[in-house]
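**User:**
Everyone, produce one record:

**Assistant:**
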Amino acid sequence: MPLDQLDEADTPASPDVAEACQSAQLMDELELVLLQLPLVCRQVFLWNKIEGYSQREIAERLGLSQSMVEKHMKRALTHLQTHLYLFQQD
């Protein structure tokens, strides 16, 4: 079917180029900020936020107390929040 015969709801919206560029820059910045974290801290964050493991599961996998996992999560979140806030200010 020719594109001009499709309903507007059936045609894909073209992405905003500026928004796509900003998203790519944010992902690059996120990767750099995560690499600044100590390995265990970064692993805790990624397993929890990306892989979906609970803090208890992470503690068992890494041989840490759940309290230490919570501290690593807090450190990672604080670090990300601080650096990504600065990214938004640019």
Notes: The chain is about 70% helix and 0% strand. The radius of gyration is 19 Å. The chain has one domain: 18-89.
